[in-house]
Amino acid sequence: MSQAFPFSAIVGQDEMKQAILLSAVDPSIGGVLVFGDRGTGKSTAVRALAALLPKMRAVEGCAYQCDPDEAASVCPICSAAAASRRARRVPVPVVDLPLGATEDRVVGALDLERALTRGEKAFEPGLLARAHRGFLYVDEVNLLEDHLVDLLIDVAASGENVVEREGLSVRHPARFVLVGSGNPEEGELRPQLLDRFGLSVEVSTPTDLPTRVDVVKRRDAFERDRAGFCAQWAGHDARLRRRIVSARERLPAVRVPDAALEQAARLCMQLGTDGLRGELTLVRAARALAAYDGDAEVGDAHLRRIAPSALRHRLRRDPLDESGSGVRVARAIDELLPA
């Protein structure tokens, strides 16, 4: 497997990196959507995440990488073998979902080799099984076929994949953080899937000379000597990894006072977001940010920093306001949460 570009070596794109790191601290925030120009580090950041994340405990030999410490959410095989199962440390999965993937490849299907050679009906897990407890990455997510979009919406909502076909009836856990990237010029994302992303960030091509030069220098150094470049940044990635682990441990103790909840609700009311998913995501993301920063309590500063990512994709289009959603969120923040 080729070495991924180090996460800590990515130049700029601070909002994107913040969103990805917070989703690693608290997966309940939901997925991350990254929209922007080509060649701005979208897929690089997601693939760098795989090497950055600390390893997780999983049941040895389990195709779904079940957590041995969560008896209520294991697959039927692990549940039946509770007394004999052993745990080991495995990398957190970051699984690519190609645009051309078939439904069988995504959800799983009949294991044809075993069916033909042994006459057995056995289930061959798909990409959703591999992504359980990790990240499912869809590049050019706005070009994904409609039937796969519907499938992802169902599984993301239930946390479970149900396969009933070819004489098989299989149900297994499939909880993952959905990460999508794309170029808005190539098409919009369906609203039903857009709402399933907890955070949405916009990236653009750097416009200042020093940043552009730095990006080219680092990428060129990486391509010429991948091992040496990764070794150079290994210490920076290790510090980030420790910070993620500390934030996860600190997260349950972070307080969200009523004042912060009221500010989050006011902000969503001011922007006219539909439903309450905006408030829930904003509060969860602000809590994760506080834990990542080492703070004991969520305050206005945390809400200010994360609100654009949590709310910009939840706004209705206003025919009387030609400004973009990011500008509307910034105006509301300045009015309700002045620095």
UniProtKB/TrEMBL annotation:
Location of the AAA+ ATPase domain: 28-207
Q: Which SMART domains match?
A: AAA (SM00382)
Query: From the UniProt record, which GO molecular function terms apply?
Result: ATP binding; magnesium chelatase activity
Keywords assigned = ATP-binding, Bacteriochlorophyll biosynthesis, Chlorophyll biosynthesis, Ligase, Nucleotide-binding, Photosynthesis
Q: Does the keyword ATP-binding apply?
A: yes
Matching entries from Gene3D superfamilies are given as: Magnesium chelatase subunit I, C-Terminal domain (1.10.8.80), P-loop containing nucleotide triphosphate hydrolases (3.40.50.300)
* Protein EC: 6.6.1.1
InterPro entries membership: AAA+_ATPase, CHLI-like, ChlI/MoxR_AAA_lid, Mg_chelatase_ATPase-isu, Mg_chelatse_chII-like_cat_dom, P-loop_NTPase
Asked if Transmembrane helix is a keyword of the record, the answer is no
What pathway does this protein act in? Porphyrin-containing compound metabolism; bacteriochlorophyll biosynthesis
Reaction(s) catalysed (UniProt annotation):
protoporphyrin IX + Mg(2+) + ATP + H2O = Mg-protoporphyrin IX + ADP + phosphate + 3 H(+)
Q: Which GO terms describe its biological process?
A: bacteriochlorophyll biosynthetic process; photosynthesis
**Which NCBIfam families does the record associate with it?**
BchI-ChlI
* Function, in words: Involved in bacteriochlorophyll biosynthesis; introduces a magnesium ion into protoporphyrin IX to yield Mg-protoporphyrin IX.
* PANTHER family documented for this protein: MAGNESIUM-CHELATASE SUBUNIT CHLI, MAGNESIUM-CHELATASE SUBUNIT CHLI-2, CHLOROPLASTIC
The entry sums up its family as follows: Belongs to the Mg-chelatase subunits D/I family.
Name assigned to this protein:
Mg-protoporphyrin IX chelatase
Native species: Methyloversatilis universalis (strain ATCC BAA-1314 / DSM 25237 / JCM 13912 / CCUG 52030 / FAM5)
